[in-house]
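tool_log.txt
---
The assistant was asked to compare two proteins side by side. It first ran the structure predictor on the initial sequence, then on the second. Raw inputs and outputs are pasted verbatim so the downstream comparison step can read them without reformatting.
(1)
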Amino acid sequence: MSEMVERVAKAVGEVLYGAADPVDTPNNWARSMDAARAAITAMREPTEEMRQRGGSTLLLHEYEPDGPEGSRDVWQSMIDAALAERK
């Protein structure tokens, strides 16, 4: 299991069910894992705002695109943009 899928599943389980654990609440955990995979899959294609923020982060800090600091900061900037988007 992917660490990221597990992190998202735990967060989803806490919001939807109050808890989700593979041993203590296996049904909640299974549903939370499905929801986590669906949510992460939906985020595979970034929005235009996410792309702009990620690109700006690279330019602002002059990171190497594949360097560890740049990757983390670009990822966080793009996620922040996704969370900030309004309908």
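(2)
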Amino acid sequence: MEPALTEQGILIKHKSRGHDGVPYVVTQIVLVETNDTDESEWPVPPGTAQEQGSWITYLRRYQLVCMLSLNVEDDDGA
């Protein structure tokens, strides 16, 4: 997906930040030509490092789904 977005001048950036000891996954969509940005920030639920890693992967994916209004097939049960 990202190469197709890059061709359209859209950059996806993922990072993290913390608020009051709670880690957050931050996803930014940047329009390269104008440098306009849209940002989504979701907290990572507590858990082991492995559980938090899974949550980070899930949150990054679903932030993009929401921000880009994508229709996706639900494959969580697979």
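---
observation on (2): The first strand starts at residue 10 and ends at 19. Strands lie at 10-19, 22-31, 36-43.
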